[in-house]
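Newbie here. three chains, one complex. Structure please?
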Amino acid sequence: MKTFTHVKDLGDLNAALREALEVKKNRFACKASGANKTVALVFFNSSLRTRLSSQKAAMNLGMNSMVLDVNQGAWRLETERGVVMDGDKTEHLLEAIPVMGAYCDIIGVRSFARFENKADDYGEKILNQFIQYSGRPVFSMESATVHPLQAFADLITIEEFKTKPRPKVVLTWAPHPKALPQAVPNSFADFMNEACVDFVITHPEGYELDPQFVRGAKVEYDQKKAFEGADFIYAKNWSAFRDDVYGQVLSKDMHWTVDAGKMSLTDSAFFMHCLPVRRNMIVTDDVIESPKSIVIPEAANREIACQVVLKRMLESLQ
Amino acid sequence: MKTFTHVKDLGDLNAALREALEVKKNRFACKASGANKTVALVFFNSSLRTRLSSQKAAMNLGMNSMVLDVNQGAWRLETERGVVMDGDKTEHLLEAIPVMGAYCDIIGVRSFARFENKADDYGEKILNQFIQYSGRPVFSMESATVHPLQAFADLITIEEFKTKPRPKVVLTWAPHPKALPQAVPNSFADFMNEACVDFVITHPEGYELDPQFVRGAKVEYDQKKAFEGADFIYAKNWSAFRDDVYGQVLSKDMHWTVDAGKMSLTDSAFFMHCLPVRRNMIVTDDVIESPKSIVIPEAANREIACQVVLKRMLESLQ
Amino acid sequence: MKTFTHVKDLGDLNAALREALEVKKNRFACKASGANKTVALVFFNSSLRTRLSSQKAAMNLGMNSMVLDVNQGAWRLETERGVVMDGDKTEHLLEAIPVMGAYCDIIGVRSFARFENKADDYGEKILNQFIQYSGRPVFSMESATVHPLQAFADLITIEEFKTKPRPKVVLTWAPHPKALPQAVPNSFADFMNEACVDFVITHPEGYELDPQFVRGAKVEYDQKKAFEGADFIYAKNWSAFRDDVYGQVLSKDMHWTVDAGKMSLTDSAFFMHCLPVRRNMIVTDDVIESPKSIVIPEAANREIACQVVLKRMLESLQ
């Protein structure tokens, strides 16, 4: 595997799922495979789960990991070509990226959507420069438009908890005080559309996601109707995708908060969220603390998802 | 060992001391015991000694360590229950803690007293949430009211330097420009009260410490009298504990600074401090640079104290 | 090797070069030599290359590394003696240094020139305290006046790319928006003066470097004349060294920017820069992106330079 940004990079999704469950059974089985190999984890943005789970996954494989926080302790990076660099950016990505590539074997990159320019965000400008110039396998640790490690972990979690061969999975928008990227819902849709699930997306009008990720998924504007008979409720806020309102908060409607009343409409569904979650905005305390909340095992699977990706990238180095 | 917060967690203190000296003689003897085990070091506050010595102790045992600075590069954490999280805190401790627990085997937590609410501080609200929700053995790397790794290192140091079976150990308050927590003097008292020493505490009136830590220790308000015949002078500033003045600086009286004149009252005592130390506030340059100053070997023993704790926690995992 | 600050610390430079090329051929050959050894990488200033390449070099040797960012997550350090520490600095270097030394076997220090006091900078006040008080081998990861890891990597790079037994190497000043230290040109001159090269320095009048580093090198104020017949162009900005203008920017003359026209005066020279580089100030996009630009292999050799230094320091521990 040379890049990991979309579900298609995993190839046969059932094979990837089986590999993940195998890895989880014995996470130290391939500890020799990472000997003398180093992964650089490059963060342009904050991280808790990704930071820890990626380091842990690398350790499980016997790899070294180096964490680089670009905005803390490293130089500020220029990302535009042709600029006279007489301002506060000391280094250009065009140098920084191959330099990072020189000291490691695999690179993970976190670089959130900036909402300054939709074309830049949806062109995955930063991530693609890493893919193009680092000379190394590159995986997204949430980039402008995708968070495939999260979606892969979500899929593993659904596989583990499902009680039907083809569960109903509902991705629901929920309110949040700030404008959030679409990376998580994009990748969740990307994965669910290829998985053995009935996939429904529900959100207020105006919050339509990018069709390249939504594809054939059913979109239902009535949240309660969407919840009926659901086996998994996956809550997430995102900002608007449409050109004229890109990156904007169109609604903070607390009627969309996931609460016990809505959960009672489901077929005793599990509650999922990628975390971090704003309690009592996205979801009420009682729902996230209920026995059906699987946000912690879901987060724990981030380690497994990352380990499969690193394992496959290590294999591709040989 | 499932938690390390107080002297009682060590059980037989002499056995713990013997184990520490054994570890110190050959710190790599148990290098196999930490294989595939990871300690997460979670810092809500600054750290030099604890940060480095804990990583070093983990390495000595063949463990991996992951450092997480909560206020740098990770999400800001909400600690109150029931809050509508519409502000600047992106994640709740109630999610963050079990998530951290999911990626590691043991957790160390640094979370200083905040002086906003005495009940919260003395209830060790943050630390206890880690103990309750992480599902992992947890040790304090200085929490609101205790710093047991420091006190254990202090005890090891006294054991190494003492020239009498039962030395006189004096904990003395000293001036400082800012309000400091009581964690260090609390734990020092906690340990000294169980150790084979004559323990005396001296401080200006109003600086009385929590009786649960002071216990039967002698409190002497006349610093010079306290110093007479002392074998170890342990200097430290702390703010007021009493309810009506909790967390306040009641005095910056430079007459309490430890200087050569006062040291001459002792039985050629060793000078100790947990560091970081404000020179010429807590202690004069000449005393801290004198041959009787053992602040550096004391700091070096932080590695040993932490290694014993990690070693015992590793044993408890099996 | 007990310190690494100047070219003379390497002893026989040809032997050091041979060792570097040997290390590069098989960087994991000495992986057993670093077992149970730890290097502390102490950063008072930002770093990308040094941070990653030093960690990577340590890993190659089987060593542990601990990164400490002094201004993030650790205590702010007082560097002056005799101060009453009643301000915002919580710890004195005189304690912090031996404490760091206590937890590791080797120390790397990054501490840039501060331009507050030339005598302090050129006295290498911070670095020398580490050498004096840490009790450990110490190497500069760019200190106030030297950057020997960079210069050693530069020399290795020249050795690899040269097509003549004695190439002409030109160090040229180039414009930059801010005042930069002289550490890189100082060490480059220090190394080139001992290497098998014809060494020329070119800069505007007023930018003369410290004679202890310039030594017998030819100084040519006409940049174009200097470039004639050059095999390597090494561009770098620095601020003034002269007492009356120390640390000042005397010129931002963009006529000194390295561009294709000037490169055409050379004998098809390679372009070098230590990075980070300000594009279109120091060098134009087309030159740094040309096939003759070797800034990335140059940066990659930072790992090799550091590995030789760590390897020799490890040998000195035995």
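Moderator note: Chain B has a mean pLDDT of 96. The CA atoms of residues 17 and 43 of chain B lie 27 Å apart. Thread marked as resolved.
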